[in-house]
Structure formats: C-alpha cells, structure tokens
Amino acid sequence: QVKLVESGGGLVQAGGSLRLSCAASGRTLSGFAMGWFRQAPGKEREFVAAIIWSGSSTYYADSVRGRFTISRNDARDRVYLQMDSLQPEDTAVYYCNDPRGYWGQGIQVTVSS
C-alpha cells in the first residue's frame, strides 16, 4: 500500500510560482513512473505532467508545457511540481498519482487575477 500526501499549494497571484511536493510512504517510488493531475471546479480530472522511473524523460499537457516542471527525488520518495507563470486557469485541486493505482488526497491551488 502506498500513501501519497501533497503539500505546497495555496493562493498566488497571476504570474507567480508555487512548488508542489508529493511525499510517499508505505512503498518506495523508486523504479516507478509518477504523475500529477488536476481537477478544476465543474471539470473532469486531467493530466498535468509525468516523469518516468529514471527521471530522464518527462511529459506535459500542452496547457502547462514550458511553465511547469516535474522532478523526483527517489532518496526521499518525493515527486515535485514546480509551477511558474501561473494563470487563473491553473486554479484546481492538484493530485499526485502513482500509476500502480494510488492517488493523494489532493491540494488546492488558487491563482488570482
């Protein structure tokens, strides 16, 4: 069983930055791909970013490419999402995902205009 806990969300003005962190416990993240998703009010959950097991390849939704950066620290069993140039449309609950079937509880990110 893997438990994922997100942190680092909050309220920021447009153009600002936030860094989300996902801490894993129960099993190591080492050797597994990880991802971030988000869900805005009234919308379905959508893919944001993913990183393969080695960290050598990353993938992004078109809407965040060039502004967001996903990274990982397997020694600490953590995955990060650096979010720069935030816009009001980035407002959502952000979820950490382990493709083995685990989700974090989600953390709110609100970007004011």
Structure commentary:
Helices cover 0% and strands 52% of the residues. The chain has strands spanning 3-7, 10-13, 18-25, 34-39, 46-51, 58-60, 68-73, 78-83, 92-98, 102-103, 107-112. The chain is built from no helices and eleven strands.
Summarize the structure in short.
By secondary structure, the protein is mainly beta. It has no helices and eleven strands.
Q: Total number of β-strand segments?
A: 11
Specify the biggest β-sheet. Answer: 7 strands, mixed
Report, as a whole number of angstroms, the end-to-end distance. Answer: 40 Å
Q: Give the integer mean of the pLDDT values.
A: 96
Instruction: Tell me roughly what share of residues is in helical segments.
Output: under 10%
Structural class of the secondary structure composition? mainly beta
Q: Strand-and-helix sequence, N→C?
A: EEEEEEEEEEE
